[in-house]
Amino acid sequence: MVEIILSALLLTLIQSWLIPMLLNLGNLSFLLSNRDEDFEFSTITKRAKRASANLYETLPIFITLMLLGVIFDVDLILLGSVWIALRVLFLMCYLGGIKIVRSGIWVASVITLIMMGLNVVVTV
User: Fold this and answer.
1) Which site in 15, 29, 31, 104 is 20 to 30 Å from 21, CA atoms measured?
2) pLDDT at residue 14, as a whole number
3) What is the CATH number of the domain that holds 47?
4) Could you list the mean pLDDT of each consecutive 10-residue stretch along the chain, which spans 124 residues?
5) What pLDDT score was predicted for residue 109?
6) What domain range is 16 assigned to?
């Protein structure tokens, strides 16, 4: 299950740093500056930043549940993998501007977290 936790952290790194950086390679002078002036990011970069902010809301819950799974020997591999897959789909829908599907995927990811929590509670 440690691999699942590391995968979630890798997703976080890719989503919060790599994707916005790649989307802004044309603005390299701003990215390397002190950022004293305001800068208007592209729509897709703004979406990437909002998707990252959304990930930060549930990532601590996910990591906590996965660590509890490791500590109490609760198998959360499938649910953890599903959560990561849903978060990747959520990111793709957010970047693509697909609103309704994105919201459904978000609900599914929260339900997955609830199922993970229930598995921990029932087993412990």
Assistant:
1) 104
2) 96
3) 1.20.120.550
4) 96 94 76 72 90 97 98 98 98 96 98 98 93
5) 98
6) 2-22+42-123
Is 12 exposed, middle or buried (CB count within 10 Å of its CB: 0-12, 13-18, 19+)?
A: middle
pTM for this prediction: 0.90
**Amino acid of residue 80:** G
Q: Are 27 and 38 in contact (CB under 8 A)?
A: no
CA distance 96 to 13: 20
Distance CA 103, CA 106 (A): 5
Query: What's the structural domain count of the chain?
Result: 1
Cα angle 21, 51, 24 (rounded to 5 degrees) comes to 20
Residue 87 lies in a domain: yes
Burial 65-104 (b: 16+ CB within 10 A, else e): bbebbeeeebebeebbebbbebbebbbebbbeeeeeebee
